[in-house]
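One such shown below:

_____
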Amino acid sequence: MEIRKEWLRNRLSNISVADDFNYDLVLAQTKGWPIAEVDQLLSLIIEAAYWRSIESPDMSVILTNIDFELALKKSHT
C-alpha cells in the first residue's frame, strides 16, 4: 500500500491538491485495481478539476475529493 501511496503522490506532484483531498480514500476505493486503471481515474480527476476551474475563472486547478467522486462515477459509466 505504501508503494501505491508514494506512486499516487508522485503522479499528482505537479498539481495543486486541496487540503480535503484524501489520498487514503483514493487508495481504498481503488484497492485491487491495476495501476493503468488508477492512472486513468487520475486523468479523469484532473479533467474534472480543470473543467471546474474554467467555470470559475478566479479559481485555479486544485484537486478535491469532489473531483475524485465525480471521476469515480464517470469511470463506472
The chain is about 65% helix and 5% strand. The CA atoms of residues 12 and 42 lie 8 Å apart.
